[in-house]
Design a protein that fits this description.
Blueprint lengths: L5 E5 L2 E6 L2 E9 L2 H10 L4 E6 H6 L5 H10 L3 E5 L5 H10 L3 E4 L1 H5 L1 H10 L4 E8 L2 E4 L4 E6 H8 L6 E6 L13
Parallel strand pairs: 1-4, 4-5, 5-6, 6-7, 7-10
Antiparallel strand pairs: 1-2, 2-3, 7-8, 8-9
Amino acid sequence: MIFFPAIDLKDGKCVRLIKGNMNESTIFDIDPVKRAQLFLEQGCSWIHIVDLNGAFEGRPINKKPIENIIANVDINIQLGGGIRDINTIDFWIGLGVQRVVLGTVAVKNPSIVEEACKKYPKKIAVGLDSRNGMVAVEGWVEQSDIKAQDLAKKYQDMGVAVIIYTDIDRDGVLNGPAIE
């Protein structure tokens, strides 16, 4: 089993949101590099980083703290949030990110996911963020009419490395995973 501790970045700080609400955040650390180093020291081989501002803005916003983690901590990085075009995918993978997570673009522009999977085998993940079984996009603010299970089936044979499922209503409330 691989444990993926998360660093969710909002305004350059490590936070936890309650059910994806940007107005309900708790700051856990003001130094993302220090937090990533701590995870490495505790034996983690991967970290999952989300640029929360980027998810809402549709483009990377927390570039500097992410670049600092890449430059200073020898750990595998899985990165999502605001990655919506092939140039941004190229940028992050070129900088050393081992896997990019595509969410909104997986719903709104599947051809980018397909292109990225061909260009970067085993480096593309699809993030299925679900509320009441339906996929949410644009930083979880917009609800699509696509069932999470249907979107997962669409991508299962396309070459994505992994599908990351989040039950938004359980995210950040410390009630454990949504096994059901």
